[in-house]
Structures are given as C-alpha cells and as structure tokens.
Specification:
By secondary structure, the chain is an all-alpha fold. The protein has a domain of 239 residues: Na+/H+ antiporter like fold (Up-down Bundle). The protein has 16 helices and 2 strands. Strands 1-2 form a two-stranded antiparallel sheet. The protein is globular.
C-alpha cells in the first residue's frame, strides 16, 4: 500500500514559481514562430488559417474569445488564492505590490496618451501598456539565476497578480461594446447562483462548471468581453484554507488550478502568442516606428512602466506608507520595475479589444508591444544580472 504524503501537494502557482522559465520560454518561442510565419512563404497560409470560419466565427476569434477564457480562469484562481491564502492575504503584504501596480498602470497610460491625445481615435488604446505578463517576466527573472533572491520573485508575482486584477477591471469597464441589458441581467443571475453555491458550502466542481459555461455564454452575448466570465467564475470556486498549510489538498480551487495550469501554460498562451504576435515587417521603417500608436505602446511599456513602478515604490517607502522588502537593493527593485514592462500577452489582448483584429493600428500595436517588451526584458535582465549577489562558493 502506497503511504500517504504527509503534506498536501503544492499549488499550481508554487509549481509555476519553481519552473517559471518553461512556460514563459515556450511563450517566447511561439511569438518568434509567429514572426517567422508572418514574414516567410507561409504568410498566406498563416493569415488564411486564422481567418477560417468555424461555426460562424474565425479561428482567431475562437482563440481570443473562447480559448483565452481558460487563461482568465487561471488568473482569477490565482488572484483569489493569493488574496485569501497567499502572499497577499495580509493587508501589510498588499500595500507595496498594490501601490507599485497602480503606479505601473497609471504612468504607462499617461505616456501612451501623450502620443495619442483625445479626441484622437487611437486614444482608445491607453490600456495597452498598462499590463504586465507574469509568465514572460518570471521566465526572464529565472534566467537571472541565483542572483535573483526569492524576495524578488515573491514581489514580482504579487505585483503581477494585482496588475492582472487591474487589467481585468480595465477590460470590463472600458472595452465592452453594445451592451445588452437582458444578457447582463442573465449573467448577473448566473453569477449570483454560483455565489450562492459557494455560500452553501457546495464543494463539487461538477456543479460549478456547467454554470460557468452558461455564465461565459451570457457574458459573451452581453457586450462585456467573454473572458471576464472566466475571472468571475474563478472567484466563486471554493477555497478551504488549511491551518498550517497554504494549500488544502481537498480544496476545489486547488484541484481546478492544478488541472488547468499545464493547459494554460503550454497550450492556451503559446497558441494565443502564435495567433497574435505575427506581423509582417515588410514596409516597416523609421516613419512606421514613429507612429503614435507604436510609440505609445513601446514607450508606455519601456519608459512608463519603470517610472510608474519604481517611482511609486520609492515614494511609498520614502513616505513610510510601505516598507521595502528586506534584502532587496534599490537596483534590484529597479530591475524588477523594468521587467514589469514586459506586457506581451495581456497588452496584445487589450490591443485587440481596442482596435480589432485587422487594420494598421493593430499591427502598430503589435510592433510597439513586441519592441517595448523586448527592451524591458533585456534591460531588466541586465540590471538584475549585474546588480545581484553572486552565489557563495561552498
């Protein structure tokens, strides 16, 4: 008889922290593959495949509206876990990541709007550089190796979780179209039913999942982006904190998170990256790079993020509102601020909501996000690689 483990299995988030490079590096590879496909003899096949209609919707539409809902379920589960039973469970631990995330959303948006001032139609893209890609940023941090202390990984994860929450609020409030009050009412009723199940102590996932699918359909038809349903559903999945252990092996949230995490990391995000990162480089010159949308996305991520995150952390510590995590230097915090400029997945997603799946603004968004994210990754890795303490010899 196999002996029972003395501790419950680790959560998907903790597994991700231990092996964060794998999913992020596959995401990087999928983006590179998309660029190759869009700039080779396969460009026609690449574009036509994404435009192919399946059950009335294009393949690209299915990826962005249906498949990405699973990604947002994962985001919602991680947000709930961290707020109730993780790094953000105490208010004292929420203050610094919360302030940093807020500054890291406001400053990039202002940089973008400096190049795309209202009433210009392109001002709608202000939310694009406000996001941070947690998988991509943790992958780059992992490449720093032992010079990146654990406290830095914890702070980056907490900051990115709060940032994701902010991005979800932005999507829900500012990127809906043609709202349908009857379907919004139906979505609210289904959401209320899910909350009621949670309050009644129902612990079987099989009861929640059909209602989650119904919630997705109602939100899809309501005019609010369908992926918001993934987050709302995740927030109703029960979590049972276990005294002495952050993860209860019998928690439905724990079980669902571990079940979908590999699919999200190794299928959903790479497929999204491949479908959305491909842009033809033909005709791209200095004038193209100086377009307002390109500049707003690129500088919003690379300049706005580092100013917003590092500046708000410095100010919060200076005013005594929050404490700097022990063992972290100013240069390490600056390196972390740079990594927050890796927007990729969420930035590209918000760009699709702002400008649609076709047109020159869409391609300018892709170029700006890719360049801004790449500059942030290289600069962040460089700062952390040469500012961290080398491993001690044994």
């Amino acid at each position: 008889m196999t002996p029972r483990p003395s501790h419950p299995p680790p959560s998907a988030l903790r597994n991700l922290l231990s092996h964060e490079a794998s999913g992020g590096l596959i995401l990087i590879a999928s983006a590179a593959a998309a660029m190759v496909a869009a700039n080779s003899g396969a460009a026609g096949l690449y574009q036509s495949t994404l435009a192919t209609k399946v059950l009335g919707l294009s393949v690209l539409h299915w990826i962005n509206d249906a498949l990405m809902t699973l990604f947002f379920v994962m985001v919602g589960l991680e947000i709930k876990r961290e707020l109730l039973d993780g790094h953000l469970a105490l208010w004292a631990h929420r203050i610094l990541p919360g302030i940093a995330a807020l500054g890291g959303m406001i400053a990039p948006a202002l940089v973008y709007l400096a190049f795309n001032q209202p009433p210009a139609a392109t001002a709608r893209g202000w939310g694009i550089p406000a996001a941070t890609d947690i998988a991509f940023s943790l992958a780059v941090l992992a490449l720093v190796g032992s010079r990146a202390p654990v406290q830095l990984k914890v702070l980056l994860t907490a900051l990115a979780i709060v940032d994701d929450l902010g991005a979800i609020v932005i999507i829900a409030l500012f990127y809906g179209t043609d709202l349908s009050l009857p379907m919004l009412g139906a979505a609210a009723a289904v959401f209320a039913a899910l909350i009621t199940l949670n309050r009644l102590g129902v612990m079987r996932l099989a009861v929640y999942i059909p209602l989650g699918l119904l919630l997705w359909y109602c939100v899809l038809k309501s005019g609010v982006h369908a992926t918001v349903a993934g987050v709302l559903f995740a927030l109703t999945v029960p979590l049972k904190p276990s005294p002495g252990h952050p993860d209860d092996a019998h928690s439905p949230l724990h079980n669902l998170e571990n079940a979908i995490q590999p699919w999200v990391a190794f299928l959903v995000m790479p497929v999204f990256g491949f479908a959305n990162a491909g842009v033809s480089l033909g005709g791209i010159d200095l004038a193209y790079l100086l377009q307002p949308v390109t500049l707003g996305c690129m500088l919003g991520l690379f300049i706005g993020k580092q100013i917003g995150v590092f500046g708000s952390v410095w100010l919060a510590v200076k005013l005594g509102v929050a404490r700097r995590p022990g063992g972290l230097t100013g240069m390490q915090l600056y390196g972390l601020s740079l990594l927050c400029g890796i927007g990729f997945t969420m930035s590209l997603f918000i760009g699709l909501l702002a400008f649609g799946e076709t047109g020159s603004w869409k391609d300018q968004t892709k170029v700006g996000v890719l360049i801004g994210s790449l500059l942030s990754a290289i600069a962040g890795w460089t700062v952390l690689r040469f500012s961290g303490q080398p491993p001690r010899s044994q």
